């Protein structure tokens, strides 16, 4: 029997009914209007409940859906919210299940990656309750249901060391998805100021400034920035909003951004 990671937040972060979930994602994708970028190699997307962050995430996924071809493999990087552990936990399963079905995991590669460096461990316990990777899967399933994934959950680890170890495994046919929200629980006005500062630093490639900002997924973001710098990938801001912009409750908000990295030519 296959080892499948069961959903932990279906019915909470996103609808548990397949038809409702698919329709909701379709509505977000239809409303999104990202710039016409090609050669997208990576994206940063939020991971809150869909009613809050789904419209922002859809900017990245609509752009991915519009690419000329699907990637061969998708690396999904996100921060652990519920478990502490050293290094990066690579999910050792055959797939991730959502109400839309099972998305395959490249388990052979995941195990090989875990064996290649002490920074990576093929362990599932941190993945069981975690939402940040899971909420990306329904979007992926709508646009690329057959593409294998490599779920990477960050514990306590040096993100630049991860970039150095992961980099040789990332090919020109792969895609990286980084799952991260931005500032948490400030007023809407303050959140916009804080997030604008972080996003400006990110677009300039200033890793030190990004490291000082508020993003729960700062470690995987820094890994991506390091990989992008070494490969001439250029960042583009696709969309930014807060939960307050979406719901109208501006007292304590969370910031969300969608960013794409494209391969520079010449």
Task: Describe what you observe in this structure.
With 266 residues, this protein is an alpha/beta fold. It has a single domain, classed as LigB-like (Protocatechuate 4,5-dioxygenase, Chain B). It is built from nine helices and twelve strands. It has helices at residues 18-31, 50-65, 107-116, 137-143, 159-166, 188-204, 207-212, 218-231, 243-247; strands spanning 4-5, 40-45, 73-79, 88-90, 95-98, 101-104, 120-121, 149-154, 174-179, 184-186, 233-242, 253-263. The strands form two sheets. Strands 2, 3, 4, 7, 8, 9, 10, 11 and 12 form a nine-stranded mixed β-sheet that branches. A three-stranded mixed β-sheet has the order 1-5-6, covered by helices on one side. A hairpin with a 2-residue loop joins strand 5 and strand 6.
Chain-wise SSE layout:
Elements: E1 4-5, H1 18-31, E2 40-45, H2 50-65, E3 73-79, E4 88-90, E5 95-98, E6 101-104, H3 107-116, E7 120-121, H4 137-143, E8 149-154, H5 159-166, E9 174-179, E10 184-186, H6 188-204, H7 207-212, H8 218-231, E11 233-242, H9 243-247, E12 253-263
Parallel strand pairs: 1-5, 2-9, 3-8, 3-9, 4-7
Antiparallel strand pairs: 2-12, 4-8, 5-6, 10-12, 11-12
Helix pairs in contact: 1-2, 5-8
Characteristics:
266 residues; alpha/beta; Protocatechuate 4,5-dioxygenase, Chain B; nine-stranded mixed β-sheet; three-stranded mixed β-sheet; 12 strands; globular
Largest sheet: 9 strands, mixed
Summed up, the domain count is 1
| Assembly classification | single chain
Q: Could you estimate the helical fraction of the residues in percent?
A: 25-40%
Report the top-level CATH class: Alpha Beta
How do the SSEs run, as a string of H and E? EHEHEEEEHEHEHEEHHHEHE
What shape does the CA trace take?
A: globular
CATH 2nd-level architecture: 3-Layer(aba) Sandwich
The CATH homologous superfamily corresponds to: LigB-like
Radius of gyration: 17 Å
């Amino acid at each position: 029997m296959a080892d499948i990671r069961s959903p932990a937040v279906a019915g909470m972060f996103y609808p548990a009914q397949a038809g409702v979930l698919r329709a909701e994602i379709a509505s977000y994708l239809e409303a999104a209007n990202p710039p016409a970028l090609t050669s997208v190699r990576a994206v940063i997307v939020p991971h809150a409940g869909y009613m809050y962050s789904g419209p922002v995430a859809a900017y990245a996924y609509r752009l991915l859906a519009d690419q000329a071809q699907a990637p061969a493999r998708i690396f999904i990087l996100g921060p652990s919210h519920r478990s502490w552990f050293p290094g990066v936990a690579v999910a050792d399963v055959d797939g991730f299940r959502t109400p839309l079905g099972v998305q395959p995991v490249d388990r052979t590669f995941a195990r090989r990656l875990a064996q290649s460096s002490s920074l990576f461990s093929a362990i599932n316990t941190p993945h069981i309750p975690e939402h940040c990777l899971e909420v990306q899967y329904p979007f992926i399933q709508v646009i690329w249901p057959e593409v294998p994934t490599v779920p990477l959950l960050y514990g306590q680890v040096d993100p630049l060391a991860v970039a150095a170890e992961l980099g040789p495994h990332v090919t020109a046919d792969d895609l990286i998805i980084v799952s991260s929200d931005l500032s948490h629980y400030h007023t809407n006005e303050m959140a916009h100021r804080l997030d604008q500062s972080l996003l400006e630093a990110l677009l300039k490639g200033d890793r030190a400034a990004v490291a000082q900002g508020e993003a729960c997924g700062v470690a995987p973001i820094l890994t991506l920035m390091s990989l992008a710098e070494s490969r001439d990938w250029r960042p583009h801001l696709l969309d930014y909003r807060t939960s307050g912009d979406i719901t109208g409750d501006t007292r304590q908000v969370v910031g969300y951004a969608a960013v794409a990295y494209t391969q520079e030519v010449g």
